[in-house]
Design brief:
Blueprint: H1 25-36, H2 41-49, H3 54-64, H4 69-86, H5 94-103, H6 106-109, H7 112-121, H8 143-156, E1 160-162, E2 165-167, H9 170-179, H10 184-199, H11 209-213, H12 215-228, H13 233-243, H14 254-263, H15 270-286, H16 290-306, H17 310-325, H18 330-346, H19 350-366, H20 370-385, H21 394-408
Antiparallel strand pairs: 1-2
Length: about 400
């Protein structure tokens, strides 16, 4: 929190807690000695220079483990003199100087892989498990050099491990992002990895552990892709599949992703546009933004009609039917389901016919048309029986049939 104002919409302690103060010189000395096991005149100058900032102090103390304090102080002074000359009076903050000295220090210079990993972490706010670095093996020479690079980052204090995941402090994350960008080749490999990860499986009902663990990183990379390049079909598919992972627990990049797609839809094919409109409507509906969801489905239906694409018309009619059915607007729901099932019958798409019939069964039961409810459920099950590679959706039809029979007293 900056300043002394309460964050809007967040429960906060009252009265406000006092701002955290920098460490005292005595405490800083103890921290420096504990990490580096050194103390002399030059160490005292370094500790005085970092101004009690814990992160800057930790980084410089890690450097002192393997380098002479006098040499480090000379580097510190030279770096600030160069910066003042180059930028007309601007002096590096103690934190900036600490990070730069560490990046240019022996530990990282002798392990070039360490800098690549640090650059990689500058694009991955969720951190990265060292065991998963093999996913980016094209970025590194071999497994041994990768392991040495990780160890060099840990020894330098620039990175730390938590729950088997390699992280950097947020300030170092932003420093890496700004000052240590990945090469164009490495960035392309990174983008492709996360696009492929998002597109894996391609099912709302099949979400891998890997996808959940990489949720934050994937969202960040997809945002970067949409901001820096013209979207193609693969990227739209990745955003669509990524939206299926959205939960309250994981947070979401999804609204911003869909906003960016909307801004760049002039570059997309009609099919790609209708794909993301459908998923955007679903996400809005799932998040309780009902008015926006209905508007999205309705606009998308008009767009599909303009494109004369009957399959997508049926998809949006189905979505609108489910939307109104979920709000007990049964006659309105039926008015969308009826033309949708007619389209699916013409194209012999059995799964979607069966799905709509199961919805119609529930609607009929709620309107006390019990015979219709039972007939729709039975027809739905018969259609599912004709499908070779069916998912677990048939269970919904059996449930609808059981409920209809229960009301019948069977």
């Amino acid at each position: 929190m900056r300043g002394l104002e309460y964050p809007e919409g967040i429960v906060w302690s009252k009265p406000l807690l006092s701002p955290l103060q920098p460490l005292s010189f005595e405490t800083s000395q103890k921290v420096f000695q504990h990490i580096s096991n050194k103390w002399d005149e030059w160490a005292a100058r370094l500790v005085q220079a970092v101004e009690g900032l814990p992160l800057a102090l930790t980084i410089i103390a890690h450097l002192a483990q393997s380098q002479d304090c006098r040499f480090l102080w000379q580097q510190w002074e030279e770096k600030n003199i160069r910066t003042i000359e180059r930028e007309k009076g601007h002096r590096l903050t103690s934190l900036e100087a600490s990070i730069e000295l560490s990046v240019e220090g022996y530990h990282l210079k002798s392990h070039s892989t360490a800098l690549v990993i640090l650059s990689l972490l500058g694009m991955l706010p969720g951190g990265l498990a060292p065991a998963r670095l093999n996913c980016f093996q094209n970025l590194f020479q071999d497994t041994q050099s990768t392991r040495k690079g990780v160890n060099a980052l840990l020894k330098s204090g620039l990175a730390y491990q938590s729950f088997d995941t390699l992280h950097v402090h947020p300030l170092i994350y932003h420093y890496s992002k700004e000052h240590l960008p990945l090469s164009a080749e490495h960035m392309q490999l990174l983008k492709q990895h996360y696009i492929d990860l998002s597109r894996k499986d391609g099912s709302r009902t099949v979400i891998s552990t890997e996808q959940l663990l990489e949720y934050k990183n994937t969202g960040h990379i997809l945002l970067h892709c949409l901001k820096t390049q013209v979207p193609d079909k693969a990227l739209v598919e990745a955003v669509r599949n990524y939206s299926w992972l959205t939960t309250e627990e994981t947070g979401s990049f999804v609204p911003e992703l869909f906003d960016l797609l909307e801004q760049k839809k002039e570059f997309l094919s009609p099919q790609c546009i209708m794909d993301y409109q459908l998923e955007w409507g679903n996400c809005l509906n799932d998040c309780g933004n009902l008015s926006q969801a209905h508007s999205m489905y309705s606009e998308a239906l008009k767009y599909a009609e303009k494109q004369e694409d009957e399959i997508y018309q049926a998809k949006f009619l189905l979505s609108l039917g489910r939307f109104h059915g979920g709000r007990c607007e049964y006659d309105l729901a039926r008015s969308y389901f009826t033309p949708a099932i007619a389209i699916y019958e013409r194209y012999n798409i059995l799964a979607d016919q069966a799905l709509i019939l199961s919805h119609l069964s529930v609607i009929s039961r709620m309107q006390f048309h019990l015979q219709d409810a039972r007939e729709c459920a039975v027809r739905s099950i018969e259609l599912y029986d004709q499908i070779e590679n069916k998912d677990d959706s048939a269970g919904y039809s059996w449930m609808a049939l059981g409920q209809a029979d229960q009301w019948f007293g069977v």
